[in-house]
């Protein structure tokens, strides 16, 4: 189980002519994620030429005029508008990226599905399980494809880890330990943006980081069956936003900045019988984006950390019964890696994860067999987060029934 030397694989970067299909793209909100989705669409054909998909950036909507300018002059959209309804009414738009603040996701997601548009929507999809279920219902009723911004599923090292787990290389899974620790909200002088207000964000770090970690756990090990959780808010006040009527005042933070949970897997999960603990913080001093997961089994273990996304550490029992971690560099034998780089040790980055995500979404749109996350995965994650909020109030374990249609890692016979 050593990192292979770098032999470029020509099959993944074939120059053979492929029939091209143009897909009209609409974007709602041109912030961090909107720009990232747009770059992913633009770059997709160069990394996945064999898909024959040419995204066409038709129209972007943002209420901020400077974001509209950016969409046209920098990202290359043909048109930018203030009102998202113009995106949904445009017959040349086939897929819509929903990259707005959380409180708009339900309105936008439901309207997009009703307009017959396939949606790639950022997480958290709804403000809790109830709202996410409403979007799921609209997507199912409309019969449109969906993909969720669960980008931590996409690193080649994570996909490789999933293959190792599925091949039984870790033996029986005993436990998982995950922690998504960021320090991006650790400064108490950082203003009270929408993310700290329940009406606009829903939960705090639960929806923001724990949702990713729950999805990653589902993706690698299968559905979580029950949890107990605690949450805390340690920066309880923040300065009002500049230009707001309350500028100069300190206002209350309305959601949690730290959360933890203990979990048991559902009996259908690949890791049925295993236990785990997950933590998330967006006020952790020290870690930058220390989004990590460790999985332990009777024959081996593995661990991964987003700060070193091109590396996977594995430990397997040797003939003497000993096991030590070995560091594997992502390489062209890892899923999707050869699309980006022909050589081990040449790093991929965050933008590349979104290109992989786009490729899976657009494959789902064109009806090809796809490994895309979907709206059912969003509900599965949201359900665990809502259970965590309930458990944090009551101190009880809460069951999280399996959501049909999700793509979590189940036992073959389940
Ligand atoms: N997948 C990830 O890892 C990840 C990372 C960051 C953010 N996100 C999610 O992406 C979403 C957006 O976050 P962001 O960081 O890009 O936000 P952002 O603050 O950078 O951008 C939000 C944009 O929405 C625009 N907007 C506000 N109201 C609007 C309206 N009515 N119509 C159209 N546009 C409107 C704003 O003008 C702004 O340009 C959030 O749900 C967030 O949780 C996901």
Automatic annotation (TrEMBL):
NAD recorded as keyword: yes
InterPro entries: Gfo/Idh/MocA-like_OxRdtase_N, Gfo/Idh/MocA_oxidrdct_glycsds, GFO_IDH_MocA-like_dom, NAD(P)-bd_dom_sf
Swiss-Prot/TrEMBL keywords: NAD, Oxidoreductase
Domain Gfo/Idh/MocA-like oxidoreductase N-terminal stretches: 24-148
Pfam families named among the record's database cross-references: GFO_IDH_MocA, GFO_IDH_MocA_C3
Domain of life, per lineage: Bacteria
Keyword NAD among record annotations: yes
GO molecular function, one term: nucleotide binding
Endpoints of the signal sequence: none
Domain GFO/IDH/MocA-like oxidoreductase as annotated: residue spans: 158-303
Name of the protein: Gfo/Idh/MocA family oxidoreductase
Organism whose genome encodes this protein: Gulosibacter chungangensis
């Amino acid at each position: 189980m050593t990192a292979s030397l770098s032999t470029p694989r020509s099959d993944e970067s074939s120059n053979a002519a492929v029939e091209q299909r143009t897909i009209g793209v609409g974007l709602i909100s041109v912030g961090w994620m909107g720009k990232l989705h747009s770059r992913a669409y633009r770059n997709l054909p160069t990394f996945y030429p064999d898909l024959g998909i040419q995204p066409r950036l038709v129209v972007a909507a943002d209420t901020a005029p400077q974001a509209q300018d950016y969409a046209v002059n920098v990202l290359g959209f043909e048109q930018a508008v203030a009102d998202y309804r113009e995106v949904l009414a445009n017959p040349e738009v086939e897929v819509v990226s929903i990259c707005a603040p959380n409180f708009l996701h339900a309105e936008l997601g439901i309207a997009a599905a009703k307009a017959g548009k396939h949606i790639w929507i950022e997480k958290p999809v709804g403000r809790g399980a109830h709202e996410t279920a409403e979007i799921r219902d609209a997507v199912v009723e409309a019969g449109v494809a969906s993909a969720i911004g669960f980008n931590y599923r996409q690193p080649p090292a994570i996909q490789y880890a999933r293959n190792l787990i599925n091949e039984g290389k870790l033996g029986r899974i005993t436990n998982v330990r995950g922690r998504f620790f960021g320090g991006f909200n650790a400064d108490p002088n950082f203003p009270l943006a929408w993310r700290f207000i329940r009406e606009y964000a829903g939960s705090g770090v639960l929806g923001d980081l724990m949702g990713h970690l729950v999805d990653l756990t589902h993706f690698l090990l299968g559905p979580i069956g029950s949890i107990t959780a605690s949450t805390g808010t340690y920066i309880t006040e923040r300065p009002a936003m500049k230009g707001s009527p309350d500028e100069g005042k300190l206002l209350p933070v309305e959601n949690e900045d730290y959360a933890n949970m203990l979990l048991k897997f559902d009996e259908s999960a690949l890791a049925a019988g295993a236990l785990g603990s997950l933590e998330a913080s967006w006020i952790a001093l020290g870690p930058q984006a220390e989004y990590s997961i460790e999985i332990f089994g009777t024959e081996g273990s593995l661990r991964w950390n987003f700060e070193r996304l091109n590396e996977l550490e594995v430990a397997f029992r040797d003939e003497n019964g000993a096991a030590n971690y070995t560091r594997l560099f992502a390489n062209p034998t890892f899923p999707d890696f050869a699309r980006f780089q022909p050589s081990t040790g040449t790093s991929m980055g965050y933008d590349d994860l979104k290109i992989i995500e786009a490729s899976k979404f657009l494959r789902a749109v064109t009806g090809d067999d796809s490994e895309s996350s979907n709206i059912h995965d969003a509900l599965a994650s949201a359900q665990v987060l809502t259970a965590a909020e309930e458990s944090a109030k009551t101190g009880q374990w809460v069951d999280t029934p399996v959501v049909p249609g999700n793509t979590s890692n189940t036992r073959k016979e389940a």
